[in-house]
Amino acid sequence: MTVLLIRHAHAGSRSEWAGHDAERGLSDRGRKQSKRLVAALRDFDVTRILSSPYVRCVDTVAPLALARDLKVEAVEALAEGSGLDAIDLVRSLTDDNVALCTHGDVIPEVLIALADEDGLDLGPHPRQAKGSVWVLHASKGCFDRASYLPPSG
Q1: Measured between alpha carbons, how far is residue 62 from residues 1, 11, 38, 113, 128 in Å?
Q2: Among 54, 56, 132, 142, which residue has the least CB neighbours within 10 Å?
Q3: How far apart are alpha carbons 67 and 20 in whole angstroms?
Q4: How far is CA 125 from CA 31, 47, 101, 122, 128, in A?
Q5: How far lies 71's CA from each of 43, 49, 127, 150, in Å?
């Protein structure tokens, strides 16, 4: 089974945003990246799309959800600062084909846990650019392969 671990696309500047950070949306660049995710992920079977409730994450996977006729399920376990909860969530999805959208502080926690606990090879220089995807393959409850898809655009 496959878990697609997506970092939200490019968002507006945190320092220039006057509202609550959870409401900060995508930049023009980020909206283009989110649309390009549809093509980049066309070969992956996705039956569910889960996202941090932050607007920039939901908006990142909204075009994918529309293209797949799925709804985006907002879950707190993928919100900023929720690394341990996100690890538990990812572990619970080893029997699913699912896309998850989260933040730059959460992704390394998930990847490090999977590398440490499952021996998952992330390559010599793991990355996590905005709008990128980690493709995590699971078998028998463990993650055994990973590949990185850089952002499109």
Answers
A1: 22, 15, 10, 28, 20
A2: 142
A3: 29
A4: 27, 30, 21, 8, 10
A5: 19, 7, 28, 24
Pairing, β 2-7 against β 98-102: parallel
Q: Tens of pLDDT along 97-144? A: 999 999 999 999 999 999 999 999 998 888 999 999 999 999 999 999
Distance of CA 83 to the CA centre of its chain: 12
Q: What is the DSSP string of 15-72?
A: TT--S-GGG--B-HHHHHHHHHHHHHTTTS--SEEEE-SSHHHHHHHHHHHHHHT--E
- Report residue 150 as tokens: 């850089």
- Distance of alpha carbon 145 from alpha carbon 135, whole angstroms: 8
pTM beyond 0.90: the answer is: yes
**Residue positions counted in the chain:** 153
Residue with tokens 């919100």: 79
Hey, what domains does the chain have and what are their CATH numbers? 3-12+20-149 (3.40.50.1240)
What's the rounded Cα separation, in Å, for the pair 136 and 114?
Answer: 10
Contact between 12 and 29 under an 8 Å Cβ cutoff? The reply is no
